[in-house]
Amino acid sequence: xxxxxxxxxxxxxxxxxxxxxxxxxxxxxxxxxxxxxxxxxxxxxxxxxxxxxxxxxxxxxxxxxxxxxxxxxxxxxxxxxxxxxxxxxxxxxxxxxxxxxxxxxxxxxxxxxxxxxxxxxxxxxxxxxxxxxxxxxxxxxxxxxxxxxxxxxxxxxxxxxxxxxxxxxxxxxxxxxxxxxxxxxxxxxxxxxxxxxxxxxxx
Length: 203
Description:
CATH superfamily: Cation efflux protein transmembrane domain
CATH class: Mainly Alpha
Distance between the termini: 33 Å
CATH architecture: Up-down Bundle
CATH topology: Alpha-lytic protease prodomain-like
């Protein structure tokens, strides 16, 4: 009786933690869309504009998880996981096209100190949130929250890639660096999408 009660209390605590983590991510990325739009327009940076799109996808992923946590069920989990997988595919496709266009046209963005500061702070926050989501999702036995933790991890990796590109462009004038760095994120996004959509074989 006491053990069952303790497990119930623990589960409710984990659910509350999951909700809090997703609402923090949601609020951060809403602010990020606005800030990145302003920075991208000011500097002409395609990388910062692409990172703004990633923030939009992260907003969508967080919304999906909040919806899923409000009424967990196997059918709802499958739908939520597919929606997150679709977000990965959209992110990878956009970044691949964006990178190819930037490299072939020789687009030369201006430096952006604001972009360096924002992406550095964002990377730190996203890695912390990703670790907490993965741990909470694992303890809760919720594959949707755990998978969205991977989305947040990719958001942090993308922040690092954009940070490196904007930093190299600002400091050294390497205009191609921000676009080239996003190819690593394309790889991670495609890999995660494949993991989500790959048929599971019963053991």
